[in-house]
Amino acid sequence: MKTLIELFDVCQVENAIAGLRFCPEKIVFVGFKKMMSQKRKEAIIDFFEKRSENIKLEFEIVGQYDYNSIVERFNYIIDHNEDCGFDLTGGKEIVLAAMGEVSAKRNVPLFQINVRDGNIVKIKNCNEIIETAKNSMTIEDAVSLNCCSVLRNEKDDFSWDFNDEFKKDVEVLWGICKVNFGLWNYQSSIFESFEKLGSLCDDLSVRVSLSHMKKGGHNVFLNKRIIGSLLKHGLICEFVQGEDLLTFRYKNAQVRQCLVKAGNILEVYAFLLLREIEAETPGYYDDMDIGVYIDWDGVEHNENEKIAETRNEVDIMVMRDLVPVFVSCKNGEVHKEALYELDTVSKKFGGKYAKRFLLASYISHNEATEAHIRQRARDMDITVVALSDIDNLNRESFKRRLKNVIK
User: Fold this and answer.
1) Integer Cα distance of 52 and 97 in angstroms
2) Closest residue by Cα to residue 41 from 53, 58, 64
3) Taking each helix axis from N to C terminus, what angle separates 264-280 and 253-260, rounded to the nearest 10 degrees?
4) From CA 241, how far away is CA 253, in angstroms rounded?
């Protein structure tokens, strides 16, 4: 098949999937003017160009209610192009009907692709068509295809390095955290306060006046178990607490990030397990990243332009074939707003096939509230896993659960 005739849809992955699967010489997109916006056309052009796919793209606008002209346009395309095939993935009913009629009269291959599992439904005249590639996309591919962009230089974007030493540190930190999530969160907030109200030298050494904190109405809470465990494993050091002055030093910047922001350890630990899944089963995931910042309009503006940007951070993103999975991590009680945010972000950045997964240390201490949140999540097609759902928080059980839900 040299020429793919594609129904243009608002769902961009449906516009791209057959082109990726068959790598034709040309794709002719047929659709309505309102649906085939310039922004969507530019996004699909950029998508194939970035992947170095040497495919010529053409766009044909047809009348939304003029069946006969749509049939004529399909016939014209077939008459002026070699070895055509119809993909009816996506598109509206009237165009689908016209495509079916022309396929039957002209013996043109007609097929459809299931985006979720990648299977091809060969409807008519498909014996000669040959698949040339596996469907796959990177996170940047998926985001840009939906007319947004991944931001790489956000001031709050921390670059994690999952070296062997840090992996060991994460295991220790997670072991300390999971004993009591509430206590961990509270202690993290104190670490954060130390830096805000005291001083942070060379980004690692903390120096704070305890009396100054108390006068400001701030708690100076130090849990002996947590502090003792951090000291024992060298995650903090040079710890000195006098009558007024408290000083200590974080092991490194990555450990500090895990301690001053309560939710980071859950994100990092889950991401570490996902990386292990990929290492054990190569190709299980096509791409993954942690702390992904995304710009809504796909246009990055500098500070001088004074334009208010709409941006979101996704805790973890995973790609399987063409389906993006958005993972939100909550190391504390879950409120309904978290579900709405995950729902909005996933649909905007991932399209209608995106999957949503909420990982939480717990949902709520109130049974009725927890039941309400879980039901609302089911209604919104969001998979919720509370760590209480995982047997004894066993490491392998945790990993199996992640593998089963993020697929």
Assistant:
1) 33
2) 58
3) 120
4) 22
Beta strands in 43-99 (DSSP E): 56-61, 84-87
346-371: b or e for each residue (b if 16 or more CB lie within 10 Å)?
bebbbbebbbbbbbbbbbbeeeeebe
Please list the pLDDT of the chain residue by residue as tens digits (407 residues). 999 999 999 999 999 999 999 999 999 999 999 889 999 999 999 999 988 778 999 999 999 889 999 999 999 999 999 999 999 888 788 888 999 999 999 999 999 988 888 888 899 888 878 777 767 899 999 999 998 999 877 666 788 999 999 999 999 999 999 999 999 999 999 999 888 888 888 889 999 998 888 877 777 788 999 999 999 999 999 999 988 899 999 999 999 999 999 899 999 999 999 999 999 999 899 999 999 999 987 666 566 655 666 788 999 999 998 999 999 999 989 999 999 999 999 999 998 999 999 999 999 989 999 999 999 999 999 999 998 877 677 889 899 999 998 88
Give Cα 351 distance to the centre of its chain.
Answer: 11
| Residues in the chain, overall count | 407
Tokens, residue 140: 């940047």
